[in-house]
Amino acid sequence: MNFEEQAGKSVLARAGVSVPQGRLCASAQEAEAAARAIGPVVVKAQVPTGKRGKSGGVKLAATPEEAAASAQAILGMEIGGFPVARVLVEEQAAIAREFYAAVLNDPASRSPLVLFSTEGGMDIEEVAATRPESLRRMAVDIRKGFGPADARRLLLGLDLGEAAVPVAAMLVDLYRVYRQHDAELLEINPLALLADGRVVPLDCKLTVDDAALYRQADIAELGAKEPLSALEERGRALDLKYIELEGNVGVLANGAGLTMTTMDVVSHAGGRPANFLEIGGEAYTKGTEALDLVLSNPGVKSLVVNFCGAFARTDVMAGGVIQAWKTLNPTVPVFFSIHGTGEDEAVRMVREELGIEPYDRMEDAISAAVEAAR
Ligand code: GDP
Ligand code: MN
Q1: Which residue intervals define the domain ATP-grasp in the entry (predicted)?
Q2: Closest ligand 1 atom, CA of 202?
Q3: Domain extents for the chain?
């Protein structure tokens, strides 16, 4: 789950990290009122993506009138595919220097990685390419954690002057927040050194592991909602992993792996899958709902049912689909491929109860479905 800047900053603030004071506003009037209360402000588009500065989504405003005008200009923009519905109106910082700080999951070391650079404000990829000497990385052993001594070691040799102390403290805080919230990424760019010597996060990008949201309930409500289609909402309510796609070949298979294989073969055969759906071992108990969900997509012109049984029995899965079939009476052509445990029985059931002959080869069933959808 991604968190917009203001949500990420709320998480930091709740964890005791001080952030600039600001207000979330949905209109120019609200922005004007906020600036009247705060003073000179920066008006920032709130979308779960970066590069807002370069897109004109970050504007400085010295007066409430300017804040209103900036908000007016930014609200309704589209940045990285996201329409801007809200702006953060935040106290303007007197920036002396901009740094970069992040803690992220590092697949290479299979551990958290703390990153710091004295070159903030630009993309970290660009920093790594053009100013590698400014960049420090440290893989963290989660059993030992990341403390002040580690932070000092990381910053050694960088020209930070007196800022080294508050920067080190900030890195320790960031690691703590990252761990405490099961984050995959906590990135502060820029981490600003202010004229008065304080070090404050001016931007914040937070991504929390979706698999850990059950134990991050207190912050999950702050995260950006994924835009779901009506069918995807229905899938979620049924506890089925359903993703609506733009193609016209519906896919019903057992297990995520076989589903993705089926989708690949649909593409390979020149077609386009209409959905991803994982029903796992619940093909029997949720057969009707799953079939209904796939067929409710008006784009679906044909359907592939692809079952492959190892521990799961294909005859049980076929029984579920047959039962669902009798309730739903699909009108689109359906193509079966059934292999593995219980295959003979499953094939017989489909043949006798639905009057459909399953294909011997998966590729043939899928090609036929792609052809039928044309
Ligand atoms: P991003 O482009 O989406 O990463 O947005 P940021 O939040 O990083 O803002 C982009 C840039 O705007 C920063 O690198 C700063 O240079 C500038 N900026 C943001 N907040 C302030 C502020 O309070 N004062 C000043 N002077 N500049 C700011
Ligand atoms: Mn930024």
Answers
A1: 9-217
A2: 20
A3: 21-91, 95-220, 230-373
Q: Grade residue 280 by pLDDT with cuts at 50, 70 and 90.
A: low
User: Would you say the CB of residue 58 lies under 6 angstroms from ligand 1?
Assistant: yes
Full 3-state SS string of the chain: CEECHHHHHHHHHHCCCCCCCEEEECCHHHHHHHHHHHCCEEEEECCCCCCCCCCCCEEEECCHHHHHHHHHHHCCCEECCEECCCEEEEECCCEEEEEEEEEEEECCCCEEEEEEECCCCCCHHHHHHHCHHHEEEEECCCCCCCCHHHHHHHHCCCCCHHHHHHHHHHHHHHHHHHHHCCEEEEEEEEEEEECCCCEEECCCEEEECHHHHHHCHHHHCCCCCCCCCHHHHHHHHCCCEEEECCCCEEEEECCHHHHHHHHHHHHHCCCCECEEEECHHHCCCCHHHHHHHHHHCCCCCEEEEEEEECCCCHHHHHHHHHHHHHHHCCCCCEEEEEEECCHHHHHHHHHHHHCCCCECCHHHHHHHHHHHHC
Q: Nearest residue CA, atom 16 of ligand 1?
A: 121
CA 79 to ligand 2 centroid distance, Å: 14
Ligand 1 contacts CB of residue 40 (under 6 A):
no
Query: For this structure, is 187 an active site residue?
Result: yes
Q: Write the pLDDT tens digit of every residue in 49-81.
A: 888 999 999 999 999 999 999 999 999 899 988
Fold classified for 21-91: Dna Ligase; domain 1 (3.30.1490)
What was the pLDDT predicted at 99?
98
Higher-confidence residue of 279 and 106: namely 106
Given 30, 90, 187, 343, the catalytic residue? 187
Segment 108-137 mean pLDDT: 94
- In ligand 1, the atom with minimum distance to the C-alpha of 95 is 26
Distance (Å) from CA 48 to ligand 2 centroid: 12
- For 95-220, which CATH class? alpha beta
**pLDDT, tens only, 161-194:** 999 999 999 999 999 999 999 999 999 999 999 9
pLDDT exceeds 70 at position 105: yes
Q: What architecture is the 230-373 domain classified under in CATH?
A: 3-Layer(aba) Sandwich (3.40)
**Which ligand approaches the C-alpha of residue 187 most closely?**
2
100 part of the active site: yes
Atom of ligand 1 nearest to the CA of 44: 7
Report the mean per-residue pLDDT for the chain. Answer: 94
What local confidence, expressed as pLDDT, does residue 228 receive?
A: 84
**Nearest ligand to residue 98 Cα:** 1
